[in-house]
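Meet the record:
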Amino acid sequence: MNIIGIYRFYADGFKSMTTGRILWLIILLKLFVMFFIIKLFFFPSFLKDKTTEEKQDYVGNELIIRASDSYEK
């Protein structure tokens, strides 16, 4: 089976869907909410205003702190 045959198989399957289209729409809507909306409110980019050196220092220090914390436990 070649790539064109695989594409036609899935294209025909999606064309004949009725309930599946609604379910795919719900899945895509949930993914949009999870990855874009929630990220904006709960995971702000606090490194945005820092220079490259400041970012490197911050990440390096966090890795050292977390590694030493997990080593102590």
Observations:
- The first helix runs from residue 3 to 15.
- DSSP finds three helices and no strands in the chain.
- Residues 1-42 form one domain.
- The chain has two domains: 1-42, 45-73.
